[in-house]
């Protein structure tokens, strides 16, 4: 049975977070859990940059979504991600300014170069990962200070059919073991290291 700190519980209630809790049982976890209603209240102060016609276009790709779901679930998430991107950009700018005396001498550290912000969407087979990624891309691209947003699917990291046959994984296509994880990690490392072109 988990112990609830009364002072922490009171502080959460005063802050309006009484239905949010730290992930259990690890009280040092950096993650928060919110039910849908509480999470949806965050959308009230966030304007919706998607219109019904945008939702219809996304639906045309076979996605089952509606404007209410976008505004209650995806919009607050896109704003939070936008804040993370903005904070990272500010950190980059401050770091670059700090290292600027070294720049003229060609000694600027590699870390001072701006690299992409990578967001991963994970989940079981056919739970809506692609839908989530497409909606987030549409929302993130509409924030005025968000740079170009690209969507990379995992399809390109599936083993070739011959390799799936050899490994007897054709019936497991789309499951973790059917992907070339080494290739995926290499790709992400190249993106995060600021490689000018990644394939």
Automatic annotation (TrEMBL):
Keywords: Kinase, Transferase
Stored SUPFAM superfamilies: P-loop containing nucleoside triphosphate hydrolases
Gene3D superfamilies: P-loop containing nucleotide triphosphate hydrolases (3.40.50.300)
Alphabetized GO MF terms: kinase activity
Protein name: Type I pantothenate kinase
